[in-house]
């Protein structure tokens, strides 16, 4: 009888020790997704703030009329190579989370290539330093979006993410058109970051913190 009691006691202890194993694993996974989304949202807001200073500095480097507040040039056919964020908001919101994340991932991957080209062409050491720092932050955003997609079970978009033009290809036939390309690159990047911040703010509301989820489950909801 003593042996039987000890066996039952050992079995109960083992069962109690193993009970929290599955909820803990689920909590870790949910917390990882929630934290990944929050981190990506924070990074988009940081890049928005960083770009405001960088854009002002770079437009001053380009000179007039690009640094004038009321300068609103028409979008030339050359600028269509830059991923456009000028999509109807209702149409954009109607996309699935997977589609929006994939579009963000593709766009920032291409925008990063263009920005790295600017980094190599900037005429001052300070501007090159700022561009290099911004490129590093934008690379972090690309990786962060990839992390969010992975945590949600979405595959990364297929296809090459390299520069849209082969190395050595002339960027523009003259200096003014080159400056116009740079102007539209910064303008589109500002719009992408503004919209991405809204995307990730909505997405994080869909994935509640794991602590709240577990408390509701514990109460039987």
From TrEMBL:
Protein keywords: Cytokine, Glycoprotein, Secreted, Signal
Pfam families documented for this protein: PRF
The Swiss-Prot or TrEMBL record annotates one GO molecular function as: cytokine activity
Q: Where is the signal peptide?
A: 1-24
Q: Tell me the function of this protein.
A: In complex with CRLF1, forms a heterodimeric neurotropic cytokine that plays a crucial role during neuronal development. Also stimulates B-cells. Binds to and activates the ILST/gp130 receptor.
Cite the PANTHER family for this sequence: CARDIOTROPHIN-LIKE CYTOKINE FACTOR 1, PTHR21353
Q: Which family does it belong to?
A: Belongs to the IL-6 superfamily.
Identification of the protein by name: Cardiotrophin-like cytokine factor 1
- The organism is Indicator maculatus
The record's gene field reads Clcf1
